Amino acid sequence: MNRGSWKIRIFIGLAIVAFAFIQKCSNTEENPYTGRSQHITMTSEQEIAIGLQSAPEMAQQHGGLYPDQRLQSFVASVGNKLVQNSIARETPYRYDFHLLADDQTINAFALPGGQCFITYALFSQLNEAQLAGVLGHEIGHVIGRHSAERIADSQTWQTATMGATVGAGDIGGIVGSIGQNTLLKNGRGDELESDELGVLFMIQSGYDPYEMIRVMEILKAAGGPNRVPEFQSTHPDPENRIEKIKEAIAKYQNQG
Fold this sequence. Notes:
Layout: H1 3-26, E1 28-30, E2 37-39, H2 44-61, H3 69-84, E3 96-100, E4 108-110, E5 115-119, H4 120-123, H5 128-143, H6 146-167, H7 169-204, H8 211-223, H9 230-233, H10 238-255
Parallel strand pairs: 3-5
Antiparallel strand pairs: 1-2, 4-5
C-alpha cells in the first residue's frame, strides 16, 4: 500500500470513529426518573415492543412459566405493589411479572419496557420482602433504561471499531477492547443503581429494606464453594453490593 492510500484509509477510519462519538453525544438525554444522563437511541415505545417480543422466548429458555397460577398471581401482586407505590407508576412502561418454571437456575432479570422474570429456583428461597427486593431491583433496571443504554453503547462501539479497522487493524482491536470494558463497567454501575432503586421501592411499599441484604446472602450461599449461580455470574459479587445497599437504606430511611 502506498503512502497516499494509507493516509486516505487513516482519514476515513478517523472520520467514522468521530461520527460514532458525535452521534453518541447527540443522542444523550437525561433520564427523567433517575436524573442520570444516558446515551439512548430508542423510544420507550420501542423498548416496550422489544420486551414484549422477547418475553416468550426468554420464558421458553427457562422451561416456560411456572404452572401454579396462585404463585404467578402472588409474584404479580408483589411486583405491582412496588410499581404503584413508587415512581415506576409514572413511567410509560408496561410492567409484567413472571415466575419461570426453571427450578435449577438461580436467576432474575428484566427486559426493556417492563417484562420482569424470576426463576422458581430463586423464588422458592425467598420470603415476600426478599421477593420484593429482587423485583424492585428488576424494576430499577427498567426505569434506569439499562438495556436501551447497553444497546446504544454497543452500536456506538461497533461503528467505532469498524472505523478503526478501516484505518489500521491493530487500532481496531484496541478500540474493540475499550468498548467491551466500557460495557462491563456500565453493567456494574447498572446493578448498583438498581440495588439503590430496589431499596427505595421496598421502603415506599412498606417492606423491610434490610431483607435486600439477606437476598445477597442467599445468592452468595447458592453458589456454594464451586458453583456460581446464573444471577451472580451476570451481577457483581453480592458481598461487594451489601455496603452500597446499607448506604442506600440509611439514605432513604433518613429521608422518611
